[in-house]
Amino acid sequence: MEEKNFPEENLTSANDYFERGNYYDKIGNSAEAITYFDKAIELDPNFDEAYYNRGVSYVNLNDFDKAIPDFNKTIEINPNFALAYYNLGVIYVNKQNSDKAIEFFNKTIEINPEHPLALYNLGVIYLNLQEFEQAIDFFNKSINVDPEYTDSYYNRGLAYQNLGDSEKALQDYVKTIELDSNYANAYTCIGNYYISVGKFEKAIENYKKAIELVPDDVHATFNLALSYQNLQYYEDAIKNFEKVIELNPEISLAYLSLGNIYAALKEYQKALTCYEKFVEFNPEDDDGYYNIGLMYYYLGDPTKSLKYYQKVLEINPNHVNALNNVGNYYNSISRYAKAQTYLEKAVKINPDDVNANFNLGLSNQHLHDYTTAIKNFEKVIELVPDDPEFASAYYLLGFIHQILGNTKKSKDNFRKAKELGFDTLHV
Predict the structure, then answer these.
(1) Phi then psi for 25, rounded to 5 degrees?
(2) The pTM is what?
(3) Which of 327, 345, 334, 261 is nearest to 295 (CA)?
(4) Is residue 252 within 8 Å of residue 282, measured between CB atoms?
């Protein structure tokens, strides 16, 4: 709005200055408005609306400390001035003083029980305080007063989601979009719901809509990539994780996810680079170092692999996979007693770990502790009786029983190994 020039001689009363202040506030010139409200208050020290509007002008200028006395003075003159309490509540939200904000919003609805924004803001405060039942109560009241207020539905959805009621949360997110089809965060939350129930195609549809509305939405882009990854649409997943990193290079989970994709594609060098970047941001993450160790193993460098598994065990001495892989390494260089130490610990931590039981069986077999080796291989068979990957457990049991002279057990195990496709010529 174009600013007008007014002759000052036309201003004679407090109300004249008040109206002129309102004009300047309306066109966005809050600093000028304040000068006129000052004059109105000078002429009428009990002009409650002048104090209130000057307080609003100070709020517009983000000068909350000057606004507070004006709203307090408004209330002193007129204790039923609901909007003064409301604006004090807003100021204390901005000052991150939840107790004071709650006090003033409650006073607002004492005077005006159907003030939708006071009810809504109380809901948001309780949502942030993780008092979700109370938050829902206030969002319900806000919706009863104003059934078209989209933010109430969206935030009530967040409260339901935090209470674990994902179906009610979904209903609120859908209602939000019915009221405002450009509400990007609601599409993101619907996408999150569909990820949680494994409907990745539906998740993708909603994340795409969110990103169409807000192209730089990192959260939606990350979860879009995650959805593609779960569907093994790796090319699309890679493209979107790379977009996440472009938007925010410090989102370390994007590097981890890219590493996992490249590992699945057997592009181990690329995976290694991603995992190394991940541990730069997470130097105490045991699984990060474990993945690096695994990549070196696949790249044919078992010595480097061992170094990273040992780093894992420095951080987490009970990391079963690292214990198993260190044991496997020592088995591979015929240091069976040392392998046994790591593998026994792995099995103690997780008695049902198939790989650890199998590798411990190998160690015990080579150490001629056949009784214990038999128990190890029998445990493997108990866990995965018909898995061709572990058919060699039957063969090795057959081999041990043959050494021990148990002919029938030996033949039975050799036969089962053969049924599962184990080629004895390669042993």
Answers:
(1) -65, -40
(2) 0.84
(3) 261
(4) yes
